[in-house]
Automatic annotation (TrEMBL):
It comes from Crotalaria pallida. This is Pectinesterase. Belongs to the pectinesterase family. Residues 99-391 form the Pectinesterase catalytic domain. One of its GO terms (molecular function) is pectinesterase activity. Gene3D superfamilies: Single-stranded right-handed beta-helix, Pectin lyase-like. The active site is at 250.
Length: 398
């Protein structure tokens, strides 16, 4: 891949994010935090970026300069380019709500729209969210199943907050967005935790962007931006397709049973100079507690890139289970690949598998002794949506 074009395609969307952020919250302190965030995420070496990154932004970018600022006093014109027919009228099976931060439709915050969804609705409610960053903490409680949130692209629509383990009374509560309801769907939107990236050894700095704790959840074309503990894939069966997931330490963690297909996993751990030893991150920390649990993370046709020297996973709990198949790994993956949390008794109970991966980080020659080089039969259960009983609940099967 061409480094320069990668770098430029990253800069452009971040500039967009920065611009829209200023419109929502022109607070210099917050801007500084965000600046830290962008500076630290702009790497000198390769980043893996999806094409939609530039495309989505392109649209937004060309419109923004012509828009009137909400404070300009010309209230009528703010909504002139708001798409007609949004939200569509509700039907027998689906209700629609709309969120726009400039006030051009039903709600200006995502939480207000979530609150408006009736409890235990059997109908699906689609919450359409216009471009922009929504600076708010959002909770979807257990009482509100069957919600879809629909953004305009993961580089143009985002929900962002900046709690940390310290500020939120624990990592589990630090999520910018926390979903406890079942049958949740998110499309084309990003979830961000903008807390400053901690220096090494700083305590209480874990900062979750998304906690997904409801069963049967589906994420398509979504972005997850954070550093330590970005995506709390807590419990239930989950599907992630075409997603962009960025972090440093344990950036996908939890005890869910999840399939990640065609996702980009990007490490923002500090670059490690050649010749220097040390590990400064891990893609996963799966938390399977016992043999009886049918949980584990499966990654199929993903890419791993970015900076640092990191493990594919470390055994947060003794029965930690993770499989990588058909995944391209850059040289940021340490040759040993995996870590048992410095507890050799876990080597017997961990299930860490690799199958037909490629790239400089994928060589299994120097891997830890307990890694499983899976054969065709062993890998089968992890390769498609049957792993998460997808035929019972994924939207495409309904
Ligand atoms: C989050 O940002 C706000 C606004 O800048 C700031 O006041 C607050 O201290 C930040 N919270 C944390 C936990 O850093
Ligand atoms: C929607 O529900 C109403 C009342 O139950 C029914 O009369 C109508 O035919 C339904 N419409 C559709 C498209 O199913
Ligand atoms: C949302 O806006 C639409 C169009 O203006 C309107 O028909 C609908 O009643 C609104 N819904 C709520 C819950 O306010
Ligand atoms: C709504 O949620 C309930 C409980 O999670 C589920 O049984 C039902 O199938 C869902 N309906 C739709 C339309 O997704
Ligand atoms: C913080 O966590 C402690 C221990 O779990 C709990 O006792 C306390 O009530 C929590 N405080 C808040 C504000 O949630
Ligand atoms: C999400 O974005 C992709 C890529 O831009 C697009 O093809 C797709 O139609 C979008 N999905 C929805 C539901 O808007
Ligand atoms: C693998 O993922 C890439 C995008 O990351 C996609 O273009 C390609 O179609 C996927 N291959 C398969 C077999 O799904
Ligand atoms: C594994 O990858 C190799 C080369 O990338 C390919 O030739 C082979 O067919 C793959 N195996 C399977 C089962 O797809
Ligand atoms: C795959 O590995 C399992 C466990 O080691 C073994 O029982 C099985 O025979 C192997 N299958 C093939 C097709 O090699
Ligand atoms: C997943 O793969 C298995 C084994 O090849 C197959 O039996 C099953 O039908 C596939 N499921 C889906 C949803 O494609």
């Amino acid at each position: 891949m061409n480094l320069k074009s990668n770098f430029q395609s990253l800069l452009v969307p971040l500039a967009a994010v920065f611009a829209s952020l200023y419109l929502i919250n022109p607070n210099p302190h917050f801007l500084n935090i965000f600046k830290d965030f962008t500076v630290t995420t702009l790497p000198s070496s390769s980043f893996y970026l999806a094409q939609p990154f530039t495309n989505n932004f392109g649209r937004d970018h060309h419109h923004r300069p012509h828009k009137k600022h909400p404070d300009s006093g010309d209230a009528g014109s703010i909504c002139d380019d708001f798409p007609p027919g949004i939200p569509p009228p509700s039907t027998n099976t689906t209700s629609y709500l709309c969120v726009d931060r400039k006030g051009c439709c039903n709600f200006t915050t995502v939480q207000a729209a979530v609150n408006a969804v009736p409890d235990f609705s059997e109908k699906r409610t689609i919450i359409w969210i216009n471009s922009g960053i929504y600076y708010e903490k959002v909770i979807v409680p257990k009482t509100k199943p069957n919600i879809t949130i629909q953004g305009q692209g993961y580089t143009s629509t985002a929900i962002a907050w900046n709690d940390t383990a310290k500020s939120a009374n624990g990592t589990f509560y630090s999520g910018s967005v926390q979903v406890f309801a079942s049958n949740f769907i998110a499309k084309n939107i990003s979830f961000m935790n903008l807390a400053p990236i901690p220096g090494p050894g700083v305590e209480g700095a874990q900062a979750v962007a998304m906690r997904i704790s409801g069963d049967q959840a589906e994420f398509r074309g979504c972005g997850f931006f954070g550093a330590q503990d970005t995506l709390h894939d807590d419990k239930g069966r989950h599907y992630f397709k075409d997603c962009y997931i960025q972090g440093s330490i344990d950036f996908i963690f939890g005890d869910a049973r999840s399939l990640y297909e065609n996702c980009q996993l990007v490490s923002i751990a500090n670059p490690v100079p050649p010749g220097q030893r040390g590990i400064n991150g891990a893609v996963t920390a799966h938390g399977r507690v016992s043999m009886d649990e049918n949980t584990g993370f499966a990654f199929v046709n993903c890419t791993i890139g970015g900076n640092g020297r990191i493990w594919l996973g470390r055994a947060w709990r003794p029965f930690s289970r993770v499989v990588f198949a058909f995944t391209t790994m850059s040289d940021i993956i340490a040759p040993e690949g995996w870590n048992d949390f410095n507890d050799p008794s876990r080597d017997q109970t961990i299930f860490y598998g690799e199958y037909n991966c490629s790239g400089p980080g994928a060589s299994t020659a120097l891997r830890v002794s307990y890694v499983q080089r899976l054969n065709d039969t062993q890998v089968f259960p992890f390769l498609n949506t049957s792993y998460i009983d997808g035929d019972q609940w994924l939207e495409v099967y309904k």
